[in-house]
Amino acid sequence: MRQKLVAGNWKMHGSREMTDALLKQLLAARLPTAAMLVCPPFPYLQQAASSLQGSGVLLGAQDCAANESGAYTGEVAATMLADLGVSHVLLGHSERRQYQQETDALVLQKAQQALAAGLKPVICVGETLAEREAGQTEQVVLRQAQAILQGLTAQQLQQVIFAYEPVWAIGTGLTATPQQAQDVHALLRSAVAEVSPQLAETMLLLYGGSVKPDNAASLFAMTDIDGGLIGGASLDADQFLAIGYAAE
Ligand SMILES: O=C[C@H](O)COP(=O)(O)O
Q1: Does 24 appear as a known binding residue?
Q2: Which architecture characterizes domain 5-246 according to CATH?
Q3: Ligand 1: lining residues by beta carbon, under 6 Å
Q4: Residue 172 CA: which ligand 1 atom is closest?
């Protein structure tokens, strides 16, 4: 049985005040039995780490560098994140693929760095609206996933999580129907099963894209959906908690 995971991606939102208030509100409530992960922007990771210490709420980053260390101005190494108490890192989010031109090869390189530092990479995959309308959903999602599945060892893959995020559903209020999401998750799980049937049983596959308290339960009820990657709704502690409870 896979333990569900609900991850909040704050994207480029927040301040010290907001980080303090949101995490206080989260920790004052009964925490969901599903694992909860928050991914604030880099400058607030240390503050979040100290607020979350001993709480059981996990801390993630939104990206890491593709190199171990060196003259890479502006980059943040996976080892630095691990040093701060970060356990997970989002990689290949569609906003990075789109605005920073991140390729499948780069995402794999970042995943290697994350794993070497002991972090769990959350690899984001998903098709654009044009790709879905052109009937290319499976092809795009499999290409993005295969770069990871073929580039890492079976042992490394035990630490990997995939997040399926149809680009057309991100921040738009349009959500994939539970069945649309399940179809892609089943496809992903069968691709994982080709590497190792045992790995396919244990690997977490999250859904992301306009997940809200009112649609979370129906998505999380699907066989191959093991939780969510939440954007907008993770900036509101009540909504984030409600989504967590929907994953129980
Ligand atoms: O990483 C999170 C996703 O991009 C979903 O964002 P959203 O919940 O605001 O649609």
Answers
A1: no
A2: Alpha-Beta Barrel (3.20)
A3: 9, 93, 165, 170-171, 208-211, 229-233
A4: 10
- Both tokens assigned to 226: 């093991």
pLDDT in tens, 76-126: 999 999 999 999 999 999 999 999 999 999 999 999 999 999 999 999 999
Query: What ranges do the domains of the chain cover?
Result: 5-246
Separation of CA 228 and ligand 1 centre (Å): 9
Q: Is the overall model pTM greater than 0.90, yes or no? A: yes
Q: How far is the CA of 132 from the centre of ligand 1 (A)?
A: 18
Residue 154 has pLDDT above 90, yes or no: yes
Q: At residue 222, what is the residue type?
A: M
Angle, CA of 238, 37 and 192, to the nearest 5°: 125
